[in-house]
Amino acid sequence: MNTTQRLSPMPTLPPIEQLVPHQAGMCLLDDVREIGEEHLCASICPSRDDLFADDSGIPGWTGLEWMAQAIAAWSGHVARSGGNKPHLGFLLGTRRYTCDVGHFSFDCRYHVRIELDYMADNGLGAFRGQILDEHGQSVASATLNVFQPDSDTMLDAMLGEGQLNKDQPGGSQ
After folding, report:
1. What is residue 167's predicted lDDT score, i.e. its pLDDT?
2. Class of the 4-159 domain?
């Protein structure tokens, strides 16, 4: 059973900043449009004051980070649905990232869609990602491999004991 919630009319899900455990300015997506058990669609409308903006727009390689943050938002939603806080995760790599544009245009709405391929019990997962322009045409796609530690203890062990900032979302309190 694949349930889907549309976020526009339903205020039941938090803003994207509460799903993606990044500090201010590093959460690049604007909002989540749709979320389900194995997928998510987020949107972004690039502007000239965005973090990676240059004179031509947002460089095409930034689409990979948009996809990774959509995965983080999906994972954050799953964590919150289980009564937990969103946890940090890691983009391990990507396969076949293709981007048909050199830059994403300013003031155009893009939709970032991700779909779960698999998630193993050890925290390793793979997702298919796609970026659609305002006309619904695919402008970028990739398969992303990710890892999410199952506890703060494991994350501390990976980063070196005491390195996890306890004040950040997903950190121990």
Report:
1. 52
2. alpha beta
Mean pLDDT check: name the lowest of 20-24, 58-62, 85-89, 162-166: 162-166
Q: Helix, strand, or coil here: 118?
A: strand
With contact defined as beta carbons under 8 Å apart, do 145 and 135 qualify? no
- Domain ranges (residues) in the chain: 4-159
Q: What's the chain's length in residues?
A: 173
DSSP character at residue 88: -
Q: How far apart are CA 107 and CA 123, in angstroms?
A: 36
Written as six digits, the tokens of 74 are 């999906």
Q: What is the pLDDT of residues 20-48, one digit of tens each?
A: 988 777 899 999 999 999 999 999 999 99
Q: Are 72 and 42 in contact (CB under 8 A)?
A: no
Distance CA 20, CA 74 (A): 9
Q: Where are the alpha helices (DSSP H) in 28-151?
A: 62-81
